[in-house]
Amino acid sequence: MTRPILKIAVLHGPNLNLLGRREPEKYGCMTLPEIDLALHALAAELGVTIDPMQSNDEGALVTRIQQTRDDGTAGILINAAAYTHTSIAIRDALVFCERPTVEVHLSNVHKREPFRHVSLLADVCLGLILGFGPDSYRLGLRALAGHLTAT
């Protein structure tokens, strides 16, 4: 019997819709649609599917995370961007949904302002990948897909 194809929610937080134009020295030149396209290709290679979503609205991200509990989503790949450091609501939604989650960041937040050094999400995630630009997403997807298919 073949295994069902696993669905992974890919969540992009605030200002990530500006990638390619916003501080390319920190975030690179790839746009968010280019990152999502690369993730779709990698997902197909890994035998999973992705369902990407970007929002500047914390509530929309919380709602999408809550939906993963009931919509067949197997795991979450999240770059909560600035909400990483401020959102107890996103953290609580991740705890509620009980889905394996990998946190990713384009930049190395530990080389940036001190307020970015603390993630409110890290302790409820499987792991954290940061500082590799768009490759952070690809590495995170590989890690999450590997975890999901091994279990």
Mean pLDDT, as a whole number?
Answer: 94
How would you write the strand order of the largest sheet?
A: 2-1-3-4-5
Radius of gyration: 14 Å
CATH superfamily: Dehydroquinase, class II
Low-confidence parts lasting 5 or more residues at pLDDT below 50?
Answer: none
Question: What is the chain-wise order of helices and strands?
Answer: EHHEHEHEEH
Strand content: 15-25%
Q: What's the end-to-end separation, in Å?
A: 16 Å
CATH architecture: 3-Layer(aba) Sandwich
Q: What fraction, in percent, of the residue positions are helical?
A: 25-40%
CATH-derived topology? Rossmann fold
Q: Tell me the major beta sheet.
A: 5 strands, parallel
CATH class: Alpha Beta
Task: Count the E strands.
Answer: 5
Shape: globular
How does this structure look, described?
The chain is built from 5 helices and 5 strands, in the order βααβαβαββα. It is globular, with a radius of gyration of 14 Å. It is of the alpha/beta class and 151 residues long. Helix 3 (58-67) packs parallel to helix 4 (88-97). It has a single domain, classed as Rossmann fold. 33% of the residues are buried.
Quick rundown:
The protein is α/β, with parallel strands linked by helices and 151 residues long. The chain is built from five helices and five strands; from the N terminus they run βααβαβαββα.
